[in-house]
Amino acid sequence: GILHEDLRLLLETSMPAKKKKALLGVADAKIGAAIQEELGYQCQTGGVVAEIMRGIRLHFHALVKGLTAQSASKAQLGLGHSYSRAKVKFNINRVDNMIIQSISLLDQLDKDINTFSMRVREWYGYHFPELIKIVSENYTYCRLAKFIGNRKELSEESLEGLEEIVMDSAKAQAILEASRSSMGMDISPLDLINIESFSSRVISLSEYRKGLQEYLRSKMNQVAPSLSALIGEVVGARLISHAGSLTNLAKYPASTVQILGAEKALFRALKTRGNTPKYGLIFHSTFIGRAAAKNKGRISRYLANKCTIASRIDCFSEVPTSVFGDKLREQVEERLAFYETGEPPRKNLEVMKEAVVEANEVVAEVKRKQAKKEKKKRKREQEKKRLEALAAAAEENSVLEAEENDIKPKKKKKKQHQDLEAESEQELEAAPENGLEEEKEEEVLPKKKRKKMMQADQEEEEVEKKKKKKKKKARDSEED
């Protein structure tokens, strides 16, 4: 029924009326035939049946008692969510959306850091123009601008700090000498404060970019280890981002992966009937840069072929490993050596057999570790449950003991009162003849009562003391 409804929804959105009716009639007929074969019930399919079913579905909340339209819509939504979750089973750790966002942010940060560092160079260059020629790296220049400040305050004492930033004693000495004979203009303290604050912002952005690159590297090793081992984390992430997802990249043929990122050049070449591009994003790989000019097209085609294999392995393997990526990288290295020296590379079948053996060993090791982790988790959970059960049992025992202790003295008191009443009644019934004897007995009776009451009070005190001792013991056991 759910599949049939999905088919109906798909057909209702994007098809002409005649085709919809024809396809829905075929679907209804197939479902009816399947029910008749399996269950032996005759089914009618047609426009009237479909309308009846639609009416029942629409007014279902009115036909069932205690069901409102709101709860029915919530139930339908929950059913849709559960059905889609069952259809799309994915691992949280292998989601490639984070890779797409992080590589986009990395490219944006590169542009912004370059723009801001050029602004720092221009701004601080009015005061110390010679520093631009000595230090070419943007991050180092921003750190130096923040450290130096006013160039006239530089001295031999600040040489150690310069060496720490530049990591070169000769450059540090050159900066110190240039500061003494600089042609730059004088600068006010307020301007220096603004330059230093802006350069500190650029430095923090650069440091964040390094952290983001580490995050991207770790995420690529989780999602696509073979692709990152073959072509690098950054280039692999760019391929995934350009394709839209790792699944889309795995569906592409090698010819598409080869020119992925060079679509403009491809369509321009097709329009002008010129030469089509040989490479797109994979040009940033080190293999193409190392190849000779005449072999760049050949190595890019070979590399694109290996990239498609690696992406498919990463996409469809249950436990992704970097073994296949390392072996494919070795193959590309051998192919490069073959173009340069003529040494024949190994056959693909031999390399893949070796890779399968190694991958099985790695997967078995990973599964063994996962099983150990699961066992440890189960033990911890069992220990927690056992401790909770013991604590609950101790609490129940303490409560029961307290209740028993509360009930017992009451029974004793009742018995004591009953005994006293019975004795007094017996004494009254056996009333003596002499008046003197009656007076003596009346004097004796209260004394006996007093003694018994005193004994009852003492027993109550002892019971309360026992209660307190038991409560203390229960508290000590719970704290232990």
Q: Low-confidence runs (pLDDT<50, min 5 residues)?
A: 409-414, 431-445
Envelope shape: extended
CATH class of the largest domain: Mainly Alpha
CATH topology of the largest domain: Serum Albumin, Chain A, Domain 1
- At CATH level 2, the architecture of the largest domain is Orthogonal Bundle
Average pLDDT metric: 82
Major sheet summary line: none
Task: Give the count of helical stretches.
Answer: 21
Description:
Residues 421-442 have a biased composition (Acidic residues). This is Nucleolar protein 56. It is found in: Nucleus, Nucleolus. One of its GO terms (biological process) is ribosome biogenesis. Residues 367-386, 397-480 are annotated as: Disordered. The protein has helices spanning 2-13, 17-39, 47-58, 60-63, 69-87, 97-125, 130-134, 138-148, 159-166, 169-180, 189-223, 225-231, 233-243, 246-251, 254-258, 263-272, 286-290, 296-316, 323-341, 348-429, 435-479. It has 3 domains: 5-88, no CATH class; 98-214, Helix Hairpins (Orthogonal Bundle); 223-366, Nop domain (Serum Albumin, Chain A, Domain 1, Orthogonal Bundle). The protein is 79% helix and 0% strand. It contains 21 helices and no strands. The protein starts with a helix and ends with a helix. It is an all-alpha fold and 480 residues long.
